[in-house]
Amino acid sequence: MPKILIVDDNEENRDVLSRRLTRKGFEVLIATGGVEGIEITLAEQPDVVLMDMNMPEMDGWAATTQLREKDFKMPVIALTAHAMTGDRERAIAAGCNDYHTKPVDMDKLMQQIETHLADATKQ
Hints:
The chain is of the alpha/beta class. It has 5 helices and 5 strands; from the N terminus they run E-H-E-H-E-H-E-H-E-H. It has a 5-stranded parallel β-sheet, with helices on both faces.
């Protein structure tokens, strides 16, 4: 069963995503911020990280950059409510593999997760 880490400071977002992903058969891990997200990622080595980009303490851009610097290779999908011009490019430049705007479109997010899981198993 693939393991997904949700890194999001919003409890409601974490709860909704967690319940939906668990129903789809994923093992779900939770982090409430960027620092905790890095710690859990390095300890648990999830198959996919769903990274909120706008968090206090340490945002998703900095957390993703640090994960890549620590040689974490698995997919990171940026989640953000801010769909400003250049945000997608900024997320990719930070090391994210993909970008998804909030509110989450679960069908689209599942496609993204499945595509990245398939790509990761080919490597």
